[in-house]
Amino acid sequence: MEICNTTSPSKSPLGFVAMLLILYISLVALLLPTLAKSATRLPTENAVMTAAPQVPPPITRDHPAMVVINLETIEKKGRLSDGVEYTFWTFGGDVPGSFIRVREGDSIEFHLNNHPSSKMPHNIDLHAVTGPGGGATSSFTAPGHSSQFTFQALKPGLYVYHCATAPVGMHIANGMYGLILVEPEGGLPPVDKEYYVMQSEFYTKGSYGEGGLQPFDMSKAISENPDYVVFNGSVGAMVGDKSIRANVGETVRLFVGNGGPNLVSSFHVIGEIFDNVYVEGGDFINHNVQSTLVPAGGSAIVEFKVDVPGTFILVDHSIFRAFNKGALGMLKVAGNDELSIYSGKQEESVYLPEGGGIQSISGDAPEALKAKNKAERILFGQRVYDQNCLACHQPNGMGISSAFPPLAGSDYLLSKPERSIDILLKGLSGKIKVSGKEYNGVMPAVKLSDENMANVLTYILNSWGNNGGEIKPLQVMEKRAQH
Ligand SMILES: [Cu+2]
Questions:
Q1: How many angstroms is it from 155 CA to the middle of ligand 1?
Q2: Residue 153 has pLDDT above 80, yes or no
Q3: What is the crossing angle of helices 450-461 and 374-388, to 10°?
Q4: Residue 198 Cα, ligand 1 centroid: separation in angstroms?
Q5: What's the pLDDT at 409?
Q6: What's the rounded Cα separation, in Å, for the pair 207 and 228?
Q7: Residue 27 predicted with pLDDT over 60
Q8: I want to staple 74 with a disulfide (CB 3.0 to 4.6 A). Which of 19, 115, 263, 406 is the partner?
Q9: What is the Rg, in whole angstroms, of the alpha carbon atoms belonging to the chain?
Q10: Which run of H or E residues covers position 221?
């Protein structure tokens, strides 16, 4: 047989394959330990992770490490606004998810653990990952399971992470996003304060402020018409006692993210100018910026020095989102006034273009326009109203539903007209009921002369079908003396 004849045992293809195999095995045997060694040579550490607005401490290592991250997905009910609850799907139990901080060149051993109480499977797509799905293809995890994958942080920057399990939009809309900072090898320049701020939207069956446990509304999400736009997961998450803080003279760095799912943010801090903006969370640094665009699924790092004390309001400058949907936070700066930078109000006067002349209301100035009778008081009062009240309470005195209470037909006003003197002198906040509807807003104190206060109150008592009455300057003077 020809085949048998031409093949000697030593030259058989089988023998050749065997030789190749031996060579391959010895090569692998030689290489494996060195590969394993290079991986184990990295010191291992557990990541420090924080809930917003806190940020983990800067990384001081001058070498890469193997960083172990354990992140738990958990679905839980929480507060979206006062009286409004929502079932959030979270990374780490909070919205936004835990802040992760690593260093360029680090290897990250990522464990995604889906809590047994979850109803949904989840995964994670980190924009800091170079690889299919940003990790999503390796991290699909059923309730009560855990997945692990490893990636190398190749590029420095501030990256968004989010769940990418179908329906992706719904998982994001329910709260599944957060930030991972990959610090450059040399670290970021030191600053005094660092905070984590992440914007996102919520789409609920009920409209803004409607109470109770609100379910997700898919059709509003598809038409990109959110009821809530918030910083750090809920209305008021960063105001009052929960404001972020700094002292005059300090430098502040905000790690700003936008989870979307749909809207782009025009991030702005009222009364500050950003000294530096790491545009879109990358290397490019712009200076002296008023508002910076933060894309959905993107970020920005903003830095500024606080020069004067006061409350600085963080907003999405698509401004109805700030004042009507919740995208408002506060930075409280403590310290001494720096009057050469900001003087505070130096003078207040009433501007009366049609009356020809400016009426000053500071104490020593002559007081113009003293009403001689009630009819005149009402007439003068209308001017005061137009300039000081109309913007909120509206020309027809009807206010704005769920924001500014009506003065027309207000049982609150008409049952105790004298109380309104105190309201103008001291302002008003907290829950009140006006003609059967609840309001919980803030009316600022109004700086007006006794005469003008009497005039405006007499005007509102005699307008829009209200039942009349008169407030005299003397009554205002007496009340003022009590304060
Ligand atoms: Cu998910």
A1: 26
A2: yes
A3: 100
A4: 18
A5: 96
A6: 9
A7: no
A8: 115
A9: 32
A10: helix 218-222
